[in-house]
Design goal:
By secondary structure, this protein is of the alpha+beta class. The chain contains 20 helices and 17 strands. The strands form four sheets. A five-stranded antiparallel β-sheet has the order 1-11-12-9-10. The chain is rod-shaped. The chain starts with a strand and ends with a helix. The relative contact order is 0.07.
Length: 524
């Protein structure tokens, strides 16, 4: 298992550091009246250590990232040595050089200034006498404290995430933990920059997602403004990215935090392989569930949909629910037909689909084509519950609820429904299923069917269900139950006797039919 940070330097591992700019703002340093006379563009370089050195070949004693302090006593009067000193520091990748003005150099030396400017090496002079030991002590103690804090944070993050993984926590819980430690929005994407999950304060996350197209284009760029990225992958293959968006802490600490989070996410994915939903499926499920629930206004979910790769500008949205269909099979069929949409499995085993079509595409014809592709010899009974197309994003939640209602009504149908079922097709059955939890409807169903709900009347109940569903067609009912017409007549007589009704009376038959629909809806 390997994770790599986009911003990791190949030359040495990152350690918590102060920048040159930060060192110059320390109270003890300000007492020396520091002035940057060259290399101002390098003030954000990291200071890993402080070193006092006077020799011209000082570079051989450095490993990079040091702030070198000198009085220049061995350089005074020799411009060649002054130039060599600066060049040696540059080759050693020193962070900066601080020159204390005094007996050797009462004013900033022009030769050293020009050499430092050419190299881009920050050259700082101290106008007041300043004990270098105080600066060294101050910086070193701060660096040690930062390193200890970074190690403590690293272990806290590792321990917390490992505990979540071993307890079987979902992906979102891990990202919430990372966001809590980082204090900034956290975004998980696949390699195509499609947002799979987010964490952090909702307003801040929404701000990131609203500008996601620009952020995604820059995702492979250089570090800046607290954006830290870690690659996710294993066994020689990359499959995702984790971004800390606008991290305000120390850069090296942010990298460390991102790497620890990446390690945990890779482990979480590996342990979850072959069981449960993939991250892509979890992303689609979360978005479609939030849309259907209506607890979050649809306009607030629009950035998430756009960042998840769903086209939303000037589109027609078609909410569908397919009972019993596997999400993977639906996604394959959508790709075959060239359709774009989100697919997610619902809690009841059905699969929701939100198609996004161009305005000039025929939503009804494409839904029919999708149904035809899904009805194969292996799946001859597949039914699509379809809501009417929506051209406004704010109407999508109502469309998803409509499609679920239609799918719910279809589930209780006694006869085979058509390949595509809409709200206009479910008629009374749909209304009854909406009212199934009403106590008065429940009481009505029990009262009307009481004679068949006990004492071995279940078989007769099945006959009654078929008889009413076929429009009281005796021949069709006998055929479906594989009995002769005389045998069916005897069963119908038994039903009428037990219920105390006349099935030839339209009102009585309708009352029993409604009661049976309500009973089936409650049982379902």
């Amino acid at each position: 298992m390997t994770t790599t940070s986009e911003f990791r330097h190949a030359s040495r591992p990152e350690e918590p550091a102060l920048s040159v700019r930060q060192v110059l703002t320390l109270e003890r340093v300000l007492a020396g009246e520091p002035e940057v006379v060259a290399g101002a563009g390098g003030l954000d370089r990291a200071v890993r250590w402080v070193h006092v050195a006077e020799a011209a070949d000082v570079g051989v004693m450095l490993s990079g990232g040091e702030m070198v302090l000198t009085t220049g006593v061995l350089l005074a009067g020799d411009e060649a040595k002054q130039t060599a000193y600066i060049q040696s520091l540059h080759r050693a990748e020193a962070a900066a050089v601080v020159l204390g003005l005094g007996r050797a150099f009462p004013t900033p030396p022009e030769v050293m200034r020009r050499a430092a400017e050419r190299c881009g090496l920050p050259l700082v002079v101290l106008h007041r006498p300043f004990p270098f030991a105080e600066l060294t002590e101050e910086v070193q103690s701060r660096l040690v404290r930062r390193k200890f804090a970074a190690v403590s944070l690293s272990e806290a993050v590792r321990t917390g995430l490992t505990a979540l993984i071993t307890s079987g926590a979902p992906l979102q819980r891990l990202l919430d933990e990372v966001a809590q430690h980082s204090g900034c929005p956290v975004v998980l994407t696949n390699l195509a920059h499609r947002v799979l999950a987010t964490a952090g304060e909702r307003p801040a996350v929404d701000d990131v997602l609203r500008d996601w197209e620009r952020i995604a284009r820059q995702a492979g760029g250089s570090e800046g403004d607290g954006w830290v990225r870690a690659e996710l992958g294993g066994r020689g293959e990359r499959w995702g990215r984790l971004l800390l968006c606008g991290y305000r802490g120390d850069t090296a600490t942010g990298r460390l935090l991102a790497d620890r989070a990446a390690e945990a996410l890779v482990l979480h994915r590996m342990l979850g392989a072959g069981s449960g939903r993939t991250w892509e499926e979890q992303s689609a499920h979360g978005l479609l569930t939030d849309l259907a629930a209506g607890t979050v206004p649809a306009r607030h979910l629009l950035p998430r949909a756009r960042a998840a790769g769903l086209p939303v500008n000037r589109r027609t949205f078609v909410p569908l629910v397919v009972p019993g269909a596997e999400p993977a099979r639906l996604e394959r069929v959508l790709r075959t037909l060239g359709l774009t949409g989100l697919v997610a499995e619902l809690a009841d085993g059905a699969t929701a689909v939100l198609l996004s079509l161009a305005r000039d595409q025929d939503a009804e014809a494409l839904t029919a084509r999708l149904a035809a592709r899904l009805r194969t010899p292996e799946h001859p009974d597949t039914v699509i519950a379809a809501a009417d197309p929506r051209t406004c994003w704010d109407d999508v939640p109502a469309g998803l609820r409509e499609a679920r209602h239609v799918a719910d009504a279809v589930a209780g149908a006694a006869l085979d429904p058509p390949a595509v079922v809409r709200l206009r097709d479910v008629h009374l059955r749909g209304l009854v299923r909406l009212l199934r939890d009403d106590p008065q409807v429940q009481s009505f169903a029990e009262r009307e069917l009481d004679g068949l709900l006990c004492g071995g009347g279940r078989e007769l109940l099945d006959v009654l269900r078929t008889y009413l569903a076929t429009g009281r067609n005796k021949s069709r009912t006998a055929q479906l139950h594989h009995v002769s017409r005389p045998a069916l007549y005897r069963r119908l007589e038994a039903i009428q006797t037990r219920l105390g009704i006349d099935l030839d009376d339209f009102e009585q038959a309708a009352s029993v039919h409604i009661a049976l629909l309500a009973h089936d809806a409650q049982q379902g």
